[in-house]
């Protein structure tokens, strides 16, 4: 008998199981609205033109080699990433109290931050410190913090299903009631899965309570630039909290806004109280990285670094990001218009009020099941759809499928 005979079969990761089911479906009109990746109007992956250009530059650069990067990553990548998040004129950067840790995507950045907080936040070995994640949230948030050793992971109010928008009152109440020094994971922009973000005025109310009650801010920033097409607008919340004097973490991902999904390019930006605190924090993060992946890979970081540090390439990248964001916004407008044109019951204003890659449609689990089984339109059980999966060629079919689901299935 194998020594692994008692290992249970783990359930599949939902979004990847959905994609596997989609691939096995032979229906000619099938559509995948599940996995969070950008698609062109031909429903194909898009390699950003600026990425192709930089890849050629890297290949032709005879000075590059395959030596190990420093444990914390490519220095020029880390500094440029933090600058994109915090802004060119960030007082925190000028005060030398901002540092970065190159990570394996946004997930890696979250994990390194979570591991550090479990070991060192507000004392040693904080397994009992409450960690709050939005209800709903990206499914990996719960797992990352649980696997880092946190025992008390709680939801905070976020989505109001009745009005299909932000439950601000519930959120603020949870902030008021949370134990002091609790950790809150906040989505910087383009909330996943709902696509619903607080307004600047609402962010200010959130900040005021968190500051007064000594709550720790851990931003997840996976969609900067991708949400609105404007890098600065999408980083507004992060920059406001920094301006208010918070010490905080920002987990950055460049999967979406660079289209570098399989390069796993991420950065953990650390905003500390002062440079001396920062040095000690990064020294401990270096120890964590050393026993996790030891040294990060270089290719994706070089692509991002060269792009962010060259004004011409940076401007070209911003144009590429705007192209992606505008296509998503166009699909939102068209889907709402087509559902209204069909007379689909209910209000569909939330489709255009939401932002970013995902939309919380409001479809219930039975309606989702109908969409998949009867219409071959694949979406998450929560009703979340990837707006990038909509194209000018399939949007009529998708709108009609939603209409049928809403009218035929309760």
State the helix count: 17
Low-confidence stretches: none
Residue share in β-strands: 5-15%
Order of helices and strands: HEHHHEHEHEEEHEHEHHEHEHHHHEHEEH
* Radius of gyration (Å): 22 Å
Strand order of the largest sheet: 2-10-9-8-7-3-4
Mean pLDDT score, rounded?
95
Helical content band = 40-55%
Q: Indicate the structural class.
A: alpha/beta
* N- to C-terminal distance: 49 Å
Please report the total strand number as a whole number: 13
Q: What overall form do the CA principal axes indicate?
A: globular
The largest pleated sheet is described as: 7 strands, mixed
Question: How would you characterize the overall build of this protein?
Answer:
- The chain has 410 residues and is an alpha/beta fold.
- Helix content is 46%, strand content 13%.
- The chain contains 17 helices and 13 strands.
- The strands form four sheets. The protein has a seven-stranded mixed sheet with strand order 2-10-9-8-7-3-4, sandwiched between helices. A two-stranded parallel sheet has the order 1-12. A two-stranded antiparallel sheet has the order 5-6.
- α6 (139-147) links the parallel β3 (131-135) and β4.
- α2 packs antiparallel against α14 and α13 (299-309) packs across α14 (311-342).
């Amino acid at each position: 008998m194998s020594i692994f005979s008692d290992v249970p079969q783990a359930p599949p990761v939902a979004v990847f199981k959905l994609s596997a089911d989609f691939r096995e479906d032979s229906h000619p009109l099938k559509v995948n609205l599940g996995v969070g990746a950008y698609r062109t109007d031909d429903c194909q992956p898009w390699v950003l033109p600026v990425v192709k250009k930089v890849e050629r530059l890297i290949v032709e650069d005879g000075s590059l080699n395959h030596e190990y990067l420093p444990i914390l990553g490519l220095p020029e990548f880390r500094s440029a990433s933090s600058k994109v998040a915090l802004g060119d004129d960030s007082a925190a950067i000028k005060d030398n109290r901002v540092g970065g840790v190159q990570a394996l995507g946004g997930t890696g950045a979250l994990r390194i931050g979570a591991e550090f907080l479990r070991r060192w936040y507000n004392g040693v070995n904080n397994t009992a410190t409450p960690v709050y994640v939005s209800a709903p949230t990206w499914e990996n948030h719960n797992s990352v913090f649980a696997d880092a050793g946190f025992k008390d992971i709680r939801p905070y109010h976020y989505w109001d299903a009745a009005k299909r928008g932000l439950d601000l009152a519930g959120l603020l109440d949870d902030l008021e009631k949370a134990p002091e020094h609790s950790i809150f994971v906040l989505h910087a922009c383009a909330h996943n899965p709902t696509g619903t973000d607080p307004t600047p005025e609402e962010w200010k109310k959130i900040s005021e309570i968190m500051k007064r009650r000594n709550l720790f801010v851990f931003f997840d920033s996976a969609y900067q630039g991708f949400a609105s097409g404007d890098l600065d607008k999408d980083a507004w919340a992060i920059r406001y909290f920094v301006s208010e004097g918070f010490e905080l973490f920002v987990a950055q991902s460049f999967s979406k806004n660079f289209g570098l999904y399989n390069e796993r390019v991420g950065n953990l930006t650390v905003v500390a109280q002062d440079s001396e605190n920062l040095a000690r924090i990064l020294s401990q993060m270096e120890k964590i990285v050393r026993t996790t992946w030891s040294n990060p890979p270089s290719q994706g970081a070089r692509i991002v670094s060269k792009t962010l540090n060259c004004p011409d390439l940076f401007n070209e990248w911003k144009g590429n990001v705007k192209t992606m964001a505008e296509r998503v916004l166009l699909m939102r407008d068209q889907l709402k218009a087509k559902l209204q044109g069909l007379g689909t019951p209910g209000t569909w204003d939330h489709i255009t009020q939401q932002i970013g890659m995902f939309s919380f449609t409001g479809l219930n689990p039975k309606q989702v099941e109908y969409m998949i089984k009867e219409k071959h339109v694949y979406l998450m059980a929560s009703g979340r759809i990837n707006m990038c999966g909509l194209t000018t060629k399939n949007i009529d079919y998708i709108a009609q499928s939603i209409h049928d689901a809403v009218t035929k299935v309760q």
